[in-house]
Amino acid sequence: MQDSQLLNEGLALMGLGMGFVFVFLTVLVIVTTLMSKVIGRFFPEPPAPAATGNRRPPAPRQDDDVMVAITAAVHRYRRRHRR
Fold first, then answer.
1. pLDDT tens, 25-71?
2. Planar angle of CA 65, 69, 75, nearest 5 degrees
3. DSSP per position, 24-59
4. Its quaternary structure (predicted)?
5. How far apart are CA 83 and CA 65, in angstroms?
């Protein structure tokens, strides 16, 4: 087989492969977009509950025992892995 003929076949195969991938990805994007619209139409998101009055969220409770345990673990790790 001639080098030019082999090169032409390689380029044709590359173009065919790249074209197939491009078409597949385009179809994938279109189908995903359509599925998103269909799901949004038939299963809409429930509305967020409205805020009522001056209710503040409860302050996060910090457990002192957990904080002591975490602090001890960090100090122990740092002491063991000191270089």
1. 999 999 999 999 999 888 888 887 776 666 666 666 668 888 888 99
2. 145
3. HHHHHHHHHHHHHHHHHHHSPPPPPPPP-TTPPPPP
4. Heterotrimer of an alpha, a beta and a gamma subunit.
5. 30
